[in-house]
Structures are given as C-alpha cells and as structure tokens.
Design brief:
- The longest helix is centred in the first third of the chain and has 20 residues.
- By secondary structure, this protein is mostly helical.
- A two-stranded antiparallel ribbon has the order 1-2.
- Helix 1 crosses helix 2.
C-alpha cells in the first residue's frame, strides 16, 4: 500500500516528494474521472486549495495530454490598473489574482499578512 500523503491530522506533508506524488496521482484520478462523467457539451471547472503547480497546472496539462477532446475555455479577472495612485490594498489585489501557468487560466493567492489590531 502506498504511503498516505496526509498526516494523521489531515495536513499534507508539502516537503515530502513521495507524498506530493501521491497527491498529484489522486488529483489526476479525480480530474479524469470528472472529465469522463461530463455530459456532451459539459464544462469541468478544476480548482484546488493547493498552491502547488504540480497539483494545479501540472494536472491540467496531464489531462490535456490524455484526453484529446479536452480543452481550456479561457477565463480572466479584471485586476486594478497599474496607475501610480494605487492604494496599498489595490497593489495587494493585483498580486492576489494573476494569470496561471497555462494561458487562459488564473491563480488566486492567499493574503498571508493580516492587518494589526492596533
């Protein structure tokens, strides 16, 4: 039996290459299962809570290679302009949403710093 990618607490071991490989394998099985279950003309939205490119763009690239009828419907989000008068919050928003590693995809990044409660 393959080692689990999750600890007893359910937290992934991000630094463990074997655990990452297990998670990527799981993501591949999930995405291909979902794709095969689509009705003709259906749309599959693939989204994870992982920051790993291996589990995100890597899995999507794998699906595109495995299933010749799979394709990306490009998505984008309007982000604040690059004007010099941008506030700190607008500058942060530009970083939180960006183009993904595959054309037509997007990445959402968590805001990791919290305002002080002073």
């Amino acid at each position: 039996q393959a080692p689990s990618a999750l600890s007893k607490s359910g937290i992934s071991k991000l630094g463990d290459e074997a655990a990452m490989a297990d998670l990527v394998d799981l993501q591949r099985r999930l995405i291909v299962s979902g794709f095969r279950l689509l009705k003709r003309g259906g749309t599959l939205v693939y989204s994870t809570c992982s920051l790993s490119e291996e589990q995100n763009e890597g899995v999507v690239n794998w699906l595109l290679q495995q299933c010749s009828n799979a394709f990306i419907i490009p998505v984008s989000f309007n982000t604040p302009s690059n004007g010099s008068g941008d506030t700190k919050e607008k500058e942060e928003e530009k970083f939180l949403i960006s183009e993904g590693g595959i054309a037509g995809t997007v990445r959402f990044r968590p805001k990791l710093n919290y305002p002080s409660s002073n």
